[in-house]
Amino acid sequence: MSRLADLLSTGPHAIDGGLASELEARGYDLAGSLWSARLLRDDPDAIRAVHQTYFEAGATVGISASYQASRPGFIAAGLSPDEADRLLELSVELVAQARDRARTNGVTHPMLVAASVGPWGATMHDGSEYRGRYGKSHDFLVDFHRERTAVLVAASPDLLAIETIPDLDEALALVDVMVDVDVPAWLSFSCESQSDTCAGQPIEAAAELVASHFDAIGINCTKPEFVSGLITRIRAVAPLLPIVVYPNAGRVWDGDVSVWLGEGTDLLPRAAVADWVTDGATLIGGCCGLGPAAITEIADITKQELL
Beta strand 252-254 with 259-261: parallel, antiparallel or unpaired? Predict the structure, then answer.
């Protein structure tokens, strides 16, 4: 049994929160096409410190800073292909180092290292990951994800967190990529409502696809109020499929000016998190705008649910 399978079978558990938004809260400027991946080059200690904070807040999975990172993106920023690959590997190593430091500080709960595999749209830095339907061919998407995934897998993560996927077109490309990958993975979708992905496809179709090819289905960077409905719909067609949820703070991303709009929330309602557990969510965390305090709260709720 993989470490991910073991974690899924013993949940509910908390996972980590938003990386980029926490870096911004600490005063780091993430402007530019590389977003948080820029700090892999310029200040990796800052990234490791955020991962460690999340582990010490109760997270059982730390997700790497490779979401928006890619060989083409780093090359466009002036790096060589070898330097680009080294930064992708470093993103995974930083999570492992943070885990080890958390252990030294007395943290004893499980801590898994997840390599983030973000959507192709994230590399565009224009909000494409919240629209999908890029107009790219299946083979293009397969080649893009295969290249980056191979580098991340070489860094020996415990799992792949394939996340914020907006449509089934990209999910199908990732199915082809994972045929040759012997690492457990979840596939997580961004959703526009309590029933559909961001590209307007029913979550039931996504769940049926994931159930045949991945270890768990996720819902992430989605408004919290949509989560319960999405879990219910997933359960209706895939009753045994583990579910991972890590919504954002409820704001809306404006890709034209690269800011989150709306008031949102810094903490998820305790009653809502408890309901998600009851409805069938196994791993629960936060995405953009939800930081360490939110993860501490989620960890407390999941511990109560295990009692």
Answer: antiparallel
